[in-house]
Amino acid sequence: MSKSDFKSRFSGSYFGVVWAVIQPLMTILIFWFVFQVGFRAQPVSNVPFILWLIAAMIPWNFFADAIINSTSAFTSYSFVVKKMVFKIGLLPLVKVTASFFLNIAFNVLLILIYTAYGHFPGVQLISILYFNICLFAFVTVIAYLISTVNVFFRDTTQIVGILLQFGIWLTPIMWQESTIPEKFRWLIKLNPIYYIINGYREALINHTWFFAHPRQTLYFWTLIIVIGIIGISFYKRMKSHFADVL
């Protein structure tokens, strides 16, 4: 179902799933051109700016894509929810997994680019795998919550899209957290996606292991559990009303 869902996004187009690669790739190239060529950004953490940028952009692209697509997990499969004997609780997972296919391809591209610049991650690929698990878990627990809300409040997709536009700039993806006064940096670290993006960069650039920040790790997984309990509990409470609304 995830494979079919992924292909269905581009059904009827001439280039098909190629657009799935072109669109996020163009976004990365635009940001790179603006900051590297336009603003003449200097190397960050002793690596070219493009390496520093894509280490954050690639996990963010998956996060944004999966969140947007999973919002409609139940509404886009309303025929399954209403007429078929099917474990509809799998539908948010179907959407997240469909987005994860592209994330795998971009992670491979990320590794190839780092290798071309002479920064092959080596054993830090274990850390990248860990942070991909974190990302998948984070998106999944959010998916159950927002996809359930969207069944009853169809403006959820538009609201989520706006929040993601704010999120990309509130998260240190195109800017360094060092530009924020030190006394306020703890606010940035409350953002769970920061844990993943910073982990990517530290693993790829500084070769720092994923367990180097135990307090942040504890905070992240505690938040995952809390959001998961809330989202799944809300879904179980409301799923009996899905067929009536859809």
UniProtKB/TrEMBL annotation:
Residues 15-238 form the ABC transmembrane type-2 domain. Keywords: Cell membrane, Membrane, Transmembrane, Transmembrane helix, Transport. It comes from the Bacteria. It is found in: Cell membrane. Its main location: membrane. The chain crosses the membrane at residues 12-35, 47-68, 89-117, 123-146, 158-175, 218-235. PROSITE patterns: ABC_TM2 (PS51012). It is a multi-pass membrane protein. The keyword Membrane applies. Belongs to the ABC-2 integral membrane protein family. This is Transport permease protein. It comes from Paenibacillus tritici. The lineage of its organism: Bacteria, Bacillati, Bacillota, Bacilli, Bacillales.
